């Protein structure tokens, strides 16, 4: 069914409206008797069948399946050949968010195209949610006809479906099977079904909200448990982004920070299209990072298939305010509120997870401060011992040797004493240099940190910051030789992207699983020319062969390149 074929008509005494605009006088007794089907009548049979089906409807657990079943039951109860349930968009109550159909063939649905959005005559039932019966919907004043490929329809019955005090949507039924107009009995049966349907939908939504709340609490507790066991930003932040990705069915979730040099650094990212999503929303991200203001966008999206659940079309960039003062943002791209949640509740969910990011950053920062303080205290002690004990003793020894040199008679003895004093002076200088170096930050970092630093260092060359994603025991599983190979491979691959790809986004995924480390570098550029595939990637291939691994290079759809470097953790032979 398409937009523009529902219209209210003149209202009769019973409260329903007839399509021909006429009023049929019915006294109160007759109207009341009409509602009691005679035993053995067709209406009684349909009512019995409907009650059995409604019982099964209440046992449903999947909202999409229940909505489709409601349409089917409405068609069976009224004898309609075609039926649909239009679900009203919560954000824009004048529009339909979904349109679940029954009776149309796949070919008819394909020919009709996009489902109606609630304009024209369909909108009349949205704005005036009361039952409507039309003998010929094509004669309704607001009828605008059907789109090409739409099957002919004449008789019509419309019924609102309420969830509590809110109109959840409307049932649209057309083409009664016997060719006759829909009757009062049909209307009464569908009205009863709509009441039960509203109750079932309300119950399912309440269960969905409870399930989402449990998921939210589980996500929060997962992060808290991780904080109690370890403080590793490379583990904690991906835990937060993965939970939020799952809850909101988002296309991508990322945490982006600005480092000391003013460059953007992707601290964590979840979702296959994280790099492309960040590149497409660069302006919104930069605005949030610069101003500390939340940015909300509605992404242009093609309408989903008629019976499909609405996919996320929102992008939200939230500022994160760690106590360190670091500039950080949480980017949630292509999301929608979880089932049963409204827009405001969905925004509250995002803010709750932005606080989780703040908690992680603060805890990591606090832990780093404690480690640094302990390290500095230890170094101060070592420096004091070196200065107060070692240097003073060496200095005293040097003075003794200098005094002894004046007593030396033989030239060779004098030369050796002076050489010893010179060596002691050099040793004192080395110790003082060591004391100075002890005031600096700790030395060797983790492999993840080295990889992250290397990825970030290409931001100025590429014009954007690549996204780095890590899975598995990256820090502990690779030996020193394999770490050197991996860093060299990543450096050469990113250099090739910078020189040849012309890309606007790049993702680096390093995965350790099943005794194999895999490094995938994918971009959305123009692809790598054949001569570059051989010459520019020769070192990458040789490093893979040296460790018994392999390299695969393939073009991405619709454009871009992916280099996959797979090497066993255990060296060959």
UniProtKB/TrEMBL annotation:
Domain Histidine kinase/HSP90-like ATPase span(s) in chain numbering: 481-571
Region (Disordered) location: 1-42
Molecular function terms from GO: phosphorelay sensor kinase activity; protein dimerization activity
Residues of the GAF domain: 62-211
Keywords from the UniProt entry: Kinase, Transferase, Two-component regulatory system
Annotated transmembrane regions: none
Entry annotated with the keyword Disulfide bond: no
GO cellular component terms, A-Z: membrane
Pfam family, one: HisKA_3
Record has Cytoplasm as a keyword: no
Source organism, top-level taxon: Bacteria
Entry-linked InterPro entries: GAF (IPR003018), GAF-like_dom_sf (IPR029016), HATPase_C_sf (IPR036890), HATPase_dom (IPR003594), Sensor_HK_TwoCompSys (IPR050482), Sig_transdc_His_kin_sub3_dim/P (IPR011712)
Gene3D superfamilies (alphabetical): 1.20.5.1930, 3.30.450.40, Histidine kinase-like ATPase, C-terminal domain
Record-linked PANTHER family: NITRATE/NITRITE SENSOR PROTEIN NARX-RELATED (PTHR24421), OXYGEN SENSOR HISTIDINE KINASE RESPONSE REGULATOR DOST (PTHR24421:SF56)
Protein name: Histidine kinase
Source organism (scientific name): Ornithinicoccus hortensis
């Amino acid at each position: 069914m398409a937009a523009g074929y529902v219209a209210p008509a003149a209202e009769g005494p019973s409260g329903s409206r007839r399509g021909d605009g006429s009023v049929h006088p019915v006294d109160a007794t007759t109207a009341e008797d009409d509602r009691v089907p005679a035993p053995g009548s067709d209406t009684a049979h349909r009512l019995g069948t409907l009650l059995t089906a409604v019982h099964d409807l209440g046992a449903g657990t999947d909202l999409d399946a229940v909505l489709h079943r409601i349409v089917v039951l409405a068609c069976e109860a009224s004898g309609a050949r075609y039926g649909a349930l239009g679900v009203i968009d919560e954000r824009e109550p004048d529009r339909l968010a979904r349109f679940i159909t029954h009776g149309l063939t796949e070919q008819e649905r394909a020919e009709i195209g996009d489902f109606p959005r609630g304009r024209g005559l369909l909108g009349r039932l949205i704005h005036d949610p009361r039952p409507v019966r039309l003998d010929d919907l094509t004669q309704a004043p607001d009828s605008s006809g059907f789109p090409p490929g739409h099957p002919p329809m004449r008789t019509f019955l419309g019924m609102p479906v309420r969830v509590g005090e809110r109109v959840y949507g409307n049932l649209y039924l057309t083409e009664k099977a016997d060719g006759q107009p829909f009757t009062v009995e049909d209307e009464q049966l569908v009205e009863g079904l709509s009441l039960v349907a509203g109750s079932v939908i309300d119950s399912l939504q309440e269960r969905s909200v409870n399930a989402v709340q449990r998921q939210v609490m589980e996500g929060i507790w997962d992060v808290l448990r991780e904080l109690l066991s370890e403080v590793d930003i490379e583990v904690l932040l991906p835990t937060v982004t993965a939970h939020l990705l799952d809850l909101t069915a988002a296309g991508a979730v990322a945490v982006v920070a600005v480092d000391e040099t003013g460059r953007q650094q992707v601290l964590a990212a979840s979702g296959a299209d994280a790099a492309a999503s960040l590149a497409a929303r660069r302006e919104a991200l930069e605005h949030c990072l610069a101003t500390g203001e939340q940015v909300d966008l509605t992404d242009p999206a093609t309408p989903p298939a008629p019976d499909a659940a609405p996919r996320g079309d929102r992008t939200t960039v939230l500022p994160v305010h760690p106590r360190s003062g670091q500039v950080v943002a949480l980017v949630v791209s292509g999301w929608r509120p979880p089932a049963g949640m409204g827009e405001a509740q969905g925004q509250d969910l995002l803010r709750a997870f932005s606080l989780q990011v703040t908690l992680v950053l603060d805890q990591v920062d606090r832990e780093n401060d404690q480690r640094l303080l302990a390290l500095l205290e230890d170094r101060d002690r070592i420096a004091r011992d070196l200065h107060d004990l070692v240097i003073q003793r060496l200095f005293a020894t040097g003075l003794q040797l200098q005094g002894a040199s004046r007593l030396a008679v033989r030239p060779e003895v004098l030369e050796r004493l002076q050489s010893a004093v010179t060596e002691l002076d050099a040793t004192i200088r080395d110790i003082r240099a060591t004391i100075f170096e002890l005031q600096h930050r700790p030395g060797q970092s983790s492999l993840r940190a080295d990889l992250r630093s290397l990825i970030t260092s290409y931001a100025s060359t590429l014009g954007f910051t690549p996204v780095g994603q890590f899975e598995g025991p990256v820090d502990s599983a690779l030996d020193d030789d394999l770490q050197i190979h991996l860093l060299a491979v990543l450096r050469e691959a990113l250099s090739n992207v910078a020189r040849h790809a012309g890309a606007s986004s790049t993702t680096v995924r390093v995965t350790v699983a099943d005794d194999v480390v895999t490094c995938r570098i994918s971009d959305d550029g123009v692809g790598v020319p054949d001569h570059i595939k051989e010459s520019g990637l020769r070192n990458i291939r040789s490093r893979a062969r040296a460790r018994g691994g392999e390299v695969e290079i393939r073009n991405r759809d619709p454009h871009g390149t992916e280099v996959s470097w797979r090497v066993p953790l255990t060296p060959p032979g």
